Amino acid sequence: MSDVGELTFSRIHRASPELLFDCMTTPEHLTHFWGPTGTTTPLDGIVVDLRPGGSFETTMVGADGGTYTMRAVYAEIDRPHKLVWIEPGVEGGMRTEITFRDLGDGRTEVITHQTNAPAAYRSAEARAGFATSLDRFDAYLATL
User: Fold this and answer.
1) Which of the 8 DSSP states describes residue 8?
2) Is the pTM above the cut of 0.85?
3) Quick one: 4-141 is in which CATH superfamily?
4) C-alpha dihedral sign at 25, 5, 108, 79
5) How many angstroms separate the CA atoms of 119 and 108, rounded?
């Protein structure tokens, strides 16, 4: 029996749902913030085929030069409200659902909900790394 569970992250950004959705689905934006602090995600390591059944891949490069590739398939695309992808190579087929909730005051709550998340993804270290990627996203948004 595999040890899988759920993770939920929520962050409020000072940006419209449309801009946030576009940042999450455009390689030229993703290259600036995808991955935890200490990693880079080169533009040539990002594939976005934005349609149900289309590929979503990112290759992060760590400070030590090691690479980590995430391979997913888009399951649902509802700009600017929801984005869903599934990582079939992760034990259990991890599903990531991102919802963009317009707060009506120039801010948007972005909720990331993952199901079938393996134990390694739920560790305190992994959750802290994900939080730094949200910090990087905030810093990038401030430059737009």
Assistant:
1) E
2) yes
3) START domain (3.30.530.20)
4) positive
5) 29
